[in-house]
Amino acid sequence: MELISSWCYDGSLPESYVMPPEKRPGDLVVPLEKSIPVIDLQCHDRNETIRQILKAGEEYGFFQIINHGVSKDLMDETMNVAEEFHAMPGLDKERECSKDPSGSCKLYTSSYVYPREDFHLWRDALTHPCRPSDEDIQFWPEKPTRYRQVVGAYSVELWKLSRRILEFICQGLGLSPDYLSNDLSHVPKIMINHYPPCPEPSLTLGLSKHRDPTIITILLQGQINGLQVFKDGRWIGVEPLPHAFVVNIGYLLQIISNGKLVGTEHRVVTNSRDARTTVSYFVYPCDESLVGPAQELVDAKNPAIYKAFKFTDFVAAFVLKRDDEAVKELISAPSCN
Ligand SMILES: O=C(O)CCC(=O)C(=O)O
Ligand SMILES: [Fe+2]
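Above are the sequence and the fe (ii) ion SMILES. Below is the predicted complex in structure-token form.
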């Protein structure tokens, strides 16, 4: 595995990145729709905010938030250290990401399963847990020098923001506001994605069409286009808005909400001019958590369409094996199989 950002490539796309024609991105420039809702969290009418979040979660599975309480300086600093990290020499990056013998801090290229891929994706990524307590920080990169300080502060703010959004969602669903404030959401992870300029954006992708195996994801996407959402059979672009966060409903929350909210598929296209760096904040359950439709949302009129499963089993089928049949088997209620 060699990081894309470490090569001196000769201007052409290596064969191993060329996707089969049916998987290629097609239209790179898609409408940058204003339709993905932008929600102002400073709105003083809490019920109105909840209504907007629920509607966006049902219709798009995606929304952007502004006036969310995370300072612009901290967002800018986080983006700066994220870019500085990926600009370091490859060996430095590898050294900075090998501090934990259990491998909690990972640097990789393309996806987790690089050796088994039919084709590779045009992205490098750094990921690590980022719980608000200090226990994870000892394994984080120490270079760039401000990494721990800035990403530490960012993790604290994103923890608070994620709690707020989860509370809104729970209330909107008619659940107790703290329904998700437990082991279902207690394992946040940061992922710093880097998509270098790509010689042939029409032949490859930064990230293939996927759903996030999360409860929710909160994304800092910077100023460069690239994120697209699959809605009603077509791709729509998520417009970069200064200092907004993009929030999406994860596949697990789709299941917990018994299909009321949607964990919409999305992808990342590359471009030949600008490098793009993004910071994902993934809200995950603990490994042993049981995930399934909330009982409060299931009745004779709304029978469960999913059954409960252990989060680790989901990771094995969905992330590691990428086996659609195994996922279906694991999550579908017996009558839906
Ligand atoms: O980089 C982006 O715009 C999206 C990243 C993403 O979808 C992910 O990390 O799951
Ligand atoms: Fe994603």
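The domain at 27-290 is CATH 2.60.120.330 (Jelly Rolls).
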